[in-house]
Amino acid sequence: MRLYLLALNPTDSVTQGFLPAAARLGLEVTVLTDHAEPHRRAYAELESAPEVVECDVRDFREVIGLITRHHTPGPDAGRTAGPVTGAARAVTIADTGADTDTGAGRAAGAPFAVFSNSDHLQTQTALVAGYFGLPAKDWKAALRAKNKGELRRHLAAAGVDTVRSVELDPGQDPSVLGEADLPYPVVVKPREGVASEDVTLVADADELVLRCKEIQHRRPGAALVVEEFLDGQLCTLETLGDGRRRHVLGGFRTRLSPPPHFIEEVLEFVPAHPDAVVEQVLAQLDAIGVGLGACHTEFVVQPDGRARIIEVNYRAIGDQCDLMLAEILGIPLFEHILTAHLGRELPADLAERCAATPLRARNEVVCADRAGTLTAAPGPYDEERDGVRLAYRPLRPLGERHEHYRTNRDYLGVIWAVGPEQTAVAAAVARFVAANRWEITP
Fold first, then answer.
1. Angle 281-300-156 (CA atoms, 0-180°, nearest 5)?
2. How far apart are CA 6 and CA 35, in angstroms?
3. Per-residue b/e over 395-416, b at no fewer than 16 CB within 10 Å?
4. Strand 372-376 and strand 439-441: pairing?
5. Is the Cα torsion angle 279, 281, 286, 287 positive or negative in sign?
6. pTM value?
7. Is residue 319 a contact partner of residue 365, using CB atoms and an 8 Å limit?
8. Which residue(s) pair with 52 in the sheet?
9. Gap between the Cα atoms of 173 and 77, Å rounded
10. Superfamily for 233-441?
11. Do the domains at 164-228 and 233-441 have one common CATH topology?
């Protein structure tokens, strides 16, 4: 059974999560990417290294054509597919728990699933999976989630939430925003951006024009969205659907950096948000069309109890939180996500089991506070102490010089801890931070 996994840059979620899970499920994996060499290096030491094929993954037409050529039997099969690494592995369907008729009538080597955990590739992946008649996300839902302007328009048209917002086309003069009726302060962000990149809070019209010009200089081809600032406690809701039922896996409370930037600094696990809050968020996800697969939704809870979506990331949460979540919940999370994309049904009681977890967790990042070269930092670290499991993973190599981005690109490393009490996991993280040092030399 072959899984085609679309990716841009290598990530821990794929390298440490999805690829090992695919191997445990007995799947042969072909990674399609527009930059093959970084993936070859990232997977070189994996026990079951995937095949890596270079492809313009941002163009669904190219992906469809490559997959069709890649699995077509014959002497020319895959000849134009680009460089390939990895060895084929035998698959025993009985060992994976798969239905033996899953691939009935399917050509040898044809895909059993097409999947991506990239923010940028969900729409393309949905279109490709649909083309091959495989389980697929609704491509329209994937587009709405990615395009923040379309997300706001769609939620308003559906009558579930209206956030005042306007768009600025690439190259458009920001001074036109002076005519917009905006409730300052407002947030300006790239319409299809990720990871707090170029997201900033602005106080008035003059500052808005200035910030938009700065972003346009850095991103000349990007459309921008300006929307009202939604104040309140920032939270996440993690869901997983198999096309029949959507399960709530839990969520997080998020601590952000001080304004005007929006860097996620700390996430604390919440096994169950209040029912009224969850119902509001799920209603908005229903309106968007979110169903199959993992979804990481960020929202605020206002003082009046109203839950309002900030953004929808139609993929699994990252930055080591997905690896942490698998441990918190005690479930094979990555296998479950891939299983859904294979068209199999998830356990009916999955949400109840997740809500009943006795464990608590904290995920905290160490951020650079200036530009320069990272000259001292701890390496990867794991420990179990007093019932708490702690892990630290570097996110920036020693010796690399970076600017001060004021975004998630300032992350130097991430620490997460899982244990029976929130105070215990917080203390473990604080102890690790105090015992180590991160130095940046200008």
1. 55
2. 11
3. bbeeeeebeebbbbbbbbbbbb
4. antiparallel
5. positive
6. 0.90
7. yes
8. 31
9. 50
10. ATP-grasp fold, B domain (3.30.470.20)
11. no
Q: Could you give the C-alpha distances from 138 to 156, 192, 314, in angstroms and in order?
A: 20, 18, 11
Asked whether the beta carbons of 54 and 33 are under 8 A apart, the reply is: yes
* Radius of gyration of the CA atoms of the chain, in A: 22
Q: For domain 2-136, give its CATH number from 2.70.70.10, 1.20.58.410, 3.40.50.20, 3.90.920.20.
A: 3.40.50.20
| Omega before residue 271 within 30° of 0, cis | no
In terms of Cα–Cα distance, which of 113, 357, 148, 356 is closest to 243? 113
Residue type, 394: P
Which of 77, 135, 131, 85 lies closest to 338 in space, CA to CA? 135
pLDDT at 194: 83
pLDDT confidence of residue 158: 97
Task: Compute how many other C-beta atoms are within 10 angstroms of the C-beta atom of residue 209.
Answer: 17
| Contact in structure between 295 and 285 (CB atoms under 8 Å) | yes
Residue 87: per-residue pLDDT: 32
What residue ranges of the chain have pLDDT lower than 50?
A: 74-105
Taking the domains of the chain in order of start, what are their residue ranges? 2-136, 164-228, 233-441
Rounded CA-CA distance 228/231 in Å is 9
Write down the CATH number for the domain with range 164-228.
3.30.1490.20
Encoded tokens for 333: 């999370």
Euclidean distance between CA atoms 222 and 242, whole angstroms: 34
pLDDT at res. 73: 56
pLDDT score, position 72: 63
Place of tokens 């921008």: 224
56 vs 8: CA distance, rounded Å: 10
Contact present, 56 and 80 (Cβ < 8 Å): no
Q: Which amino acid is at 25?
A: L
Give the 3-state secondary structure of residue 35. Answer: coil
Q: Which strand ranges, in their side-by-side order, compose the sheet holding 186-190?
A: 165-168, 224-228, 186-190, 200-202
